[in-house]
Specification:
The complex is a heterodimer of chains A (111) and B (113). Chain A has no helices and 9 strands. With 111 residues, chain A is mostly beta strands. Chain B has no helices and 11 strands. In chain B, strands 2, 4, 5, 6, 9, 10 and 11 form a 7-stranded mixed β-sheet that branches. In chain B, a hairpin with a 6-residue loop joins strand 4 and strand 5. Chain B is globular and about 35 Å long. The termini of chain B are far apart. The chains are: A mainly beta (111), B mainly beta (113). At the A-B interface, strand 4 of A face strand 5, strand 9 and strand 10 of B.
């Protein structure tokens, strides 16, 4: 499983875009990158995942660099309810594929 | 419907008690998981069931005993727990395997006295 590195914390003003970076320099060619978030005391929530191309859904956009060594999760218009811990995970190929949660990035959205 | 339900929401138990946590999903998923999350730490995988068979046990102590009676239901039986087992216990499911998106329940917050 590829190791991921994220900043421990970030702040964002309400209504602005939140850009959360993730480094996964050891990722292999067929490993997906997943993003989950966990709002305080709730279960983790799936946000988005991608392999090579940029992805967008109703929650966020995922930008993956061409060399696949890093990615950025973009919340286009952050709200106070987006305050959470955001986890970037590369579950790995083969039979592992386990979700190994790192420490994540605590995003604080401020009014 | 992407809902995983867990009961109870909260549980307090003594070290000599036997209790069970329950997890249910009706999405037709064939893989189900138990995670443990201590305060201010990320979730850690405990068990994986695939097609109702235990496929991964992450060296979890035997005082935790999982059970998958059918494809929709996952239980975690607890016996002789220690105070350090107090944590949020999360259940998740995915369509077929580990390599797919997992959907998590809200968790059961367990306090062992």
């Amino acid at each position: 499983d590829a190791k991921t590195t994220q900043p421990p914390s970030m702040d964002c003003a309400e209504g602005r875009a939140a850009n959360l970076p993730c480094n996964h320099s050891t990722i292999s060619g067929n490993e997906y990158v997943y993003w989950y978030r966990q709002i305080h005391s709730q279960g983790p929530q799936y946000i988005i995942h991608g392999l090579k191309n940029n992805e967008t859904n109703e929650m966020a956009s995922l930008i993956i660099t061409e060399d696949r060594k890093s990615s950025t999760l973009i919340l286009p218009h952050a709200t106070l309810r987006d305050t959470a811990v955001y986890y970037c995970i590369a579950p790995g190929s083969g039979n592992t594929g386990k979700l190994i949660f790192g420490q994540g990035t605590t995003l604080q959205v401020k009014p | 419907d992407t809902e995983v339900t867990q009961t109870p929401k909260h549980l307090v138990m003594g070290m000599t008690n036997k209790k069970s946590l329950k997890c249910e999903q009706h999405m037709g998923h064939r893989a189900m998981y138990w995670y443990k999350q201590k305060a201010k730490k990320p979730p850690e995988l405990m068990f994986v069931y695939s097609y109702e068979k235990l496929s991964i046990n992450e060296s979890v102590p035997s005082r935790f005993s999982p059970e998958c009676p059918n494809s929709s239901l996952l239980n975690l039986h607890l016996h002789a727990l220690q105070p350090e087992d107090s944590a949020l216990y999360l259940c998740a499911s995915s369509p077929f395997s580990l390599k797919e998106t997992q959907y998590f329940g809200p968790g059961t917050r367990l306090l062992v006295l």
